[in-house]
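lol ok so funny story. i was supposed to be doing the assay writeup but got distracted and ended up predicting the structure for this chain instead. priorities right. anyway since i did it might as well share w the group, maybe its usefull for someone
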Amino acid sequence: MKKINNEFIVGLFVIFSIVGLLYLTFSTGKVQLNKEGYYIYVVFNDAAGLQKNAPVMINGFEVGKINDIRLSYNNNKTEIMFRLYIDKNARIMENPVVSIKTLGLMGEKYIQITAKEGKDYVKPETVLYGKPFVDLDTLMDQAQVITRDISQEVNKLVISLNSTVDNNKGNVDNILKNLESASKNFEEFSRDIKSHPWKLLTKTKDDKKTESRR
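and the output, tada:
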């Protein structure tokens, strides 16, 4: 028997790899041929990194993909219009909330359609308007503004407290002195009682005598 040469082994390995890749691609449902569906349009102010063929989900369930992206000009305003391909079996309740979400750790963007209740369904070729996308940079900027405002209010409060303390410094000093004097008297009384506990009994008897005289 002739030995199998290396070129044949490499070719066979490549063929099996391609077959396996095609199987995984079709089995995961990312590529679906001749699938029937319909189109709707969604308008956003910002594309937020969305790409063609990105997933479209209804209430978290994938039902389609982004088929096309183009600029739209409406009343001197630049917008982004997405053409969405939706599976024919997926129907969207009227008045849905459309937003841009981030999927997984890789940060893949997708369109989320939230539609829970409605009397009718969104018809093909309908144009929907999505919620403005708020990215991480915008959230960080808002957090910095809030932190700065809080810091300013805290500084104002500290200044007000310092002013109040300065205006009532004499009263505060008297209160502290009285507290210090009372504390010392209590310490002396405690030491005296510990050293001469019989004084409590004597005092009690004297009090009883005084009450009997009354």
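The helical segments are 6-27, 136-167, 169-195, 198-213. The chain has a mean pLDDT of 77.
back to the writeup now i swear
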